[in-house]
UniProtKB/TrEMBL annotation:
One of its GO terms (molecular function) is oxidoreductase activity. It comes from the Bacteria. The lineage of its organism: Bacteria, Pseudomonadati, Pseudomonadota, Gammaproteobacteria, Enterobacterales. Signal peptide: none annotated. This is Alkyl hydroperoxide reductase. Residues 28-166 form the Thioredoxin domain. Pfam families: AhpC-TSA (PF00578).
Length: 166
């Protein structure tokens, strides 16, 4: 019994250390919202003009910065599409993934339907100081409330949106 208690304590310490490291890395990599970003109009691949403040007014918005060439994004993008299909408030930004047509072909090839802002030169992502893909930013009522980088599960994304809405 003492051995099991020791292992449980060691596992708990390891989990806490990992959590602290993840939080520190997230703070270090956290994107910075550009000045007056909430007033900026963005055009989706579908031709719709949207503003992040408007989209986040009634419920939290997940802004997902991804790239077609990003290995980790191949695992997270289907989960983001699942959020979209489930009615979650999501907007995605395709970072340096080619022309509008190339992004549309890539999405069609993966059978994904997402609201996408194409950022072919990376200028929008640079304004946000995005240095890692994927990056997830949660905006509520026009304010950035949280962000994370790297792999995140479907339930992790849902939990972040839920947390921002309470």
């Amino acid at each position: 019994m003492a051995r099991l208690t020791r292992w449980a304590r060691e596992l708990l310490i390891l989990a806490l250390m990992l959590l602290v490291m993840v939080l520190i890395v997230d703070l270090w990599r956290a994107p910075q919202a550009p000045p007056a970003f909430e007033q900026q109009l963005l055009k989706t691949l579908g031709g719709e003009s949207v503003s992040l403040a408007q989209l986040s007014r009634n419920k939290p918005l997940l802004v997902y910065f991804w790239a077609s060439w990003c290995a980790v994004c191949r695992f997270t993008t289907p989960d983001v599409a699942k959020l979209v299909a489930g009615g979650s408030n999501v907007l995605t930004v395709a970072l340096r993934s080619g022309s509008d047509q190339q992004v549309e072909r890539w999405l069609a090839g993966k059978k994904l339907q997402l609201p996408v802002i194409n950022d072919p030169q990376g200028s929008l992502s640079a304004q946000w100081q995005i240095g890692v893909t994927p990056t997830f930013v949660v905006i509520s009522q026009g304010n950035v409330v949280q962000s994370t980088t790297g792999w995140t599960s479907y339930w992790g994304m849902r939990l972040r949106l839920w947390w921002a809405g309470i």
